[in-house]
Design brief:
Elements: E1 5-9, H1 26-40, E2 44-50, E3 59-63, E4 66-71, H2 88-96, E5 104-108, H3 109-119, E6 125-128, H4 133-137, H5 149-161, E7 164-167, H6 170-180, E8 187-189
Parallel strand pairs: 1-2, 1-5, 2-4, 5-6, 6-7, 7-8
Antiparallel strand pairs: 3-4
Length: 201
């Protein structure tokens, strides 16, 4: 039986980034730990992220069976995630050069969804939003709504085109149905885990 291979798509968030670096936070921890547990289960994982021009290798092991690939796309410097859209086509091209025909796509956040939408043909695609643009809009002044247009387009496309949407909570599942019109049957609620070696009641 062929090895199951998963391509994690996380353009703005390096799973091996240091907490406290710009835009390195909970999503990166989630992807890193998910990659570790999938690798332990025998799944080959490659997490694709953008090379920010820092002194980091192009390829770095997360654990045996899981690696991060940093693609040199756009400026060799930090770019806020809200400004990444112009570079995501080139990012998808870079990922495409390394993908196998049967690789499963698991995109993260709207920028990962944007890339997955360009690579989906013939592949199974799972998406995790981590947060939703339409929900965030409710807390923003109307003058700032325009910066979310590309994000919401990508999130809407993911809801329509992906095979499975992973929601962290039942509230997020309900938002995906009510705000994005996602078919309830394609949503799986998978709460984030807790590292009980580090955290306890």
């Amino acid at each position: 039986m062929p090895e199951l291979r998963v391509a994690m798509l996380t353009p703005h968030g390096d799973p091996l980034g240091r907490i406290g670096e710009p835009e390195i936070g909970g999503q990166c921890v989630y992807i890193r730990d998910l990659a570790v547990h999938l690798a332990r289960a025998g799944v080959a994982v490659t997490a694709f992220t953008r090379d920010r021009g820092e002194v980091k290798p192009a390829s770095e092991e997360i654990c045996p069976g899981a690696v991060v690939r940093r693609l040199p796309v756009g400026p060799r410097s930090f770019v806020p995630k809200e400004e990444l859209e112009p570079y995501l086509g080139a990012f998808a091209d870079g990922v495409a050069q390394e993908l196998g025909r049967d690789d499963v796509l698991h995109s993260h956040f709207w920028d990962g969804a944007f890339v997955a939408g360009m690579l989906k043909e013939g592949r199974r695609w799972l998406h995790t939003s981590h947060s939703l643009g339409k929900r965030k809009l409710a807390a923003l002044p109307e003058a700032e709504h325009g910066q979310y247009a590309g994000r919401i387009r990508a999130e809407t496309m993911a809801g329509d085109a992906c095979d499975v949407l992973i929601a962290s909570t039942r509230v997020e599942r309900d938002d995906l149905v009510a705000l994005y019109g996602v078919e309830p049957g394609k949503i799986e609620v998978v709460p984030p885990g807790v590292d009980t070696a580090r955290f306890s009641p």
